[in-house]
């Protein structure tokens, strides 16, 4: 009965409009403005869950320039597209509703020419143009949650820290819903077709799609773990490769003449990216050593990463986290501030800055940094946990309990932050003794 009532409500609030790609009339609950707002709300959390953004202004500008050419050649040229690089070696690419398109550092470094990059970005642009994301959202079981995307999100409490923690949980629901979406085979076929079409319209050799598929298939055999995320939402099949080959082989010769396969700029930018990978090897080694409790050795690896690539914020943030674990809050703060200066949007830097300030007794700085961290990665348990510790230190028990509850709900009692959050809640809210009758 409730499900039927929800369907009726959605039918009443929706409207029919033509699909930008097919021109066919379809039911839609989201205007372009709603779709853009949905993507903007989910983007920060999705970015952090996918490794954060890779910060290299020169490379970022290059990738975005390629993407903008594709966007102008797409079926939704008026949408404000954003093309960004994820800071992970995993081969991945995805798009959020409203024009937020991502390609990973690992996938970008594995490509052989610019036409392959254009094919990848064109494929993701196709998902946005055809409104695949919102189409699945409005028919999914979590529609009732997402209908609140346009409303102001706030926590239930009146305390600033508790509000930040509550807001994070609600935004995290949207992120989880978008992350769980899976495109159908028809969606993928259409996005492949659009990627080929948009790349060709924008001046690249459309056969780059075939090269892209072959690069991914090669990686699937040699690096299955790295490709896990990509394959989860982009099932690589022989059929898709054959479809790309068939579609491009049927193109008139004049549609291929003069099309760009690669450029010196692509080769230069990818070479720079591959060179930076040497520093990231030390960063990964540092994390492995830290997991084994070898903190001093981990610091040495992070220092070597910083020597090789001093402008990569994650290395400074990693060093800050290690110094915090070594109980050297002054050095932790120094490294965290360096990371924040290089990348103000890096969650780990804001988090460790707040934790180090809290450890040093600077509650004002701790509150500012931890509140910022909660906004950078809504729903992650670490920031609300430390906000709870801050509130408890200041004697604000109710606000502390709300923050701890948010951390516990985000991770569960078995998690790194969920477990101490649960313990803190039991301390702040002990069970009441049963009332005895006289």
Report what the structure shows.
There is one protein chain. Helix 13 runs antiparallel to helix 14, helix 13 packs parallel to helix 15 and helix 20 packs antiparallel against helix 21. The chain is built from 21 helices and 5 strands. The protein starts with a helix and ends in a 10-residue tail after the last helix. It folds into 2 domains: 214 residues, no CATH class; 151 residues, Alpha Horseshoe (Serine Threonine Protein Phosphatase 5, Tetratricopeptide repeat). With 438 residues, it is mainly α.
N-to-C CA distance: 47 Å
Major pleated sheet = 3 strands, mixed
Q: Classify the secondary structure makeup into a structural class.
A: mainly alpha
Residue runs with pLDDT of under 50 for 5 or more positions: 6-12, 141-156, 224-233
Can you give the mean pLDDT? Answer: 86
Give the oligomer, counting copies of the same chain as homo and different chains as hetero: single chain
Give the strand order of the largest sheet, numbering strands 1, 2, ... along the chain. 3-5-4
Range of helix content: 55-70%
Number of helices: 21
Q: What's the total number of strands? A: 5
């Amino acid at each position: 009965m409730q499900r039927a009532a929800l369907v009726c409500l959605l039918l009443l609030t929706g409207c029919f409009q033509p699909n930008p790609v097919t021109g066919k009339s379809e039911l839609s609950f989201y205007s372009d403005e709603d779709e853009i707002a949905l993507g903007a709300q989910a983007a920060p959390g999705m970015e952090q869950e996918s490794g954060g953004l890779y910060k290299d202004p020169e490379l970022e500008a290059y990738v975005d320039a390629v993407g903008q050419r594709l966007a102008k050649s797409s079926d939704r040229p008026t949408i404000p597209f954003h093309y960004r690089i994820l800071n992970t070696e995993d081969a991945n690419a995805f798009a959020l509703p409203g024009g937020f398109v991502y390609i990973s550092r690992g996938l970008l470094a594995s490509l052989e020419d610019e036409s392959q990059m254009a094919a990848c970005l064109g494929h993701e642009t196709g998902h946005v143009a055809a409104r695949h994301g919102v189409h699945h959202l409005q028919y999914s079981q979590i529609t009732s949650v997402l209908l609140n995307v346009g409303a102001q999100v706030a926590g239930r409490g009146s305390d600033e820290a508790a509000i930040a923690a509550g807001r994070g949980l609600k935004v995290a629901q949207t992120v989880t819903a978008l992350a769980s979406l899976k495109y159908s085979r028809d969606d993928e076929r259409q996005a492949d077709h659009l990627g080929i079409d948009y790349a060709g319209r924008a001046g690249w050799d459309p056969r780059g799609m075939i090269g892209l598929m072959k690069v991914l298939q090669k990686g699937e055999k040699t690096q299955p773990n790295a490709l896990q995320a990509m394959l989860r939402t982009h099932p690589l099949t022989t059929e898709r490769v054959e479809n790309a080959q068939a579609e491009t082989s049927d193109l008139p010769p004049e549609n291929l003449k003069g099309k760009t396969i690669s450029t010196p700029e692509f080769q230069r930018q990818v070479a720079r990216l591959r060179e930076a990978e040497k520093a990231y090897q030390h960063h990964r080694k540092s994390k492995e050593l830290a997991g084994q409790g070898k903190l001093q050795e981990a610091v040495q690896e992070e220092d070597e990463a910083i020597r090789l690539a001093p402008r990569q914020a994650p290395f400074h943030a990693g060093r800050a986290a290690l110094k915090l674990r070594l109980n050297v809050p002054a050095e932790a703060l120094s490294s965290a501030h360096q990371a924040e200066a290089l990348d103000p949007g890096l969650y780990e830097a804001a988090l460790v800055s707040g934790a180090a300030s809290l450890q040093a007794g600077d509650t004002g700085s701790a509150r500012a940094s931890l509140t910022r961290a909660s906004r950078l990665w809504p729903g992650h348990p670490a920031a609300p946990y430390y906000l709870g510790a801050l509130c408890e230190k200041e004697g604000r028990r109710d606000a502390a309990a709300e923050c701890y509850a948010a951390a516990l709900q985000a991770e569960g009692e078995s998690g790194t932050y969920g477990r101490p959050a649960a313990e803190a809640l039991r301390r702040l809210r002990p069970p009441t003794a049963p009332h005895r009758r006289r």
